[in-house]
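One chain given next:
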Amino acid sequence: MKKIAVYPGSFDPITNGHVDIIKRGLGVFDELIVLIAYNPNKKTLFSVEERVEMIQEVIRDFKNVRVDSFDGLLVDYAKVAGANVILRGLRALSDFEYEFQLALINRRLNRDVETIFLMTGYKWFYTSSTIINEAASLGGSVKGLVPEIVNQKLVEKYSSKRGIV
C-alpha cells in the first residue's frame, strides 16, 4: 500500500523552507500532495492559480509530488485523495501550539488520518511566507529564501503595486 501524505498550507508564496519539507517528506512517503488550502483568515498576495503555477514550476523535477487546492476540511480531502497522513513543518515552539491544536481537531474529525511533523531545516528556521511578503513589499531582496521563480513573481507583483515598472 502506497504511503501518501498531504502537505497543506497557503504557500503564499512557497519558500525554500517549504521546499525543504517537500524534499524530506519524499524520503518518508511514496507520494506527496502539496495542497493549497483555503484559509478564510488570511489575505493572500497570489491567487490560488498563481500559487499552483509557481509550485508546479518549483517541483517539476520532483517525482511523486503533485499540487492541488481545496477549500473544505483537510481530513475530507485526505480521504478522497487516498492519503492517511497530514505532513506539517514546524519552525519554532510558537508553531507547535497552533499545529498541535490542528492535529487534535483533525484526529477527532477522522481517526484514520495521522499528523506527522518535520522540523524545518536550520537554514529556514526563521523563514515564513509572511516575513518574505513583508520584506519584498518594502523592496527588500528575498533572493535565496524562495525559489528563483517565486523571487521573480514577488518582484513583479510588488513593483507593479509600488508603480515601479
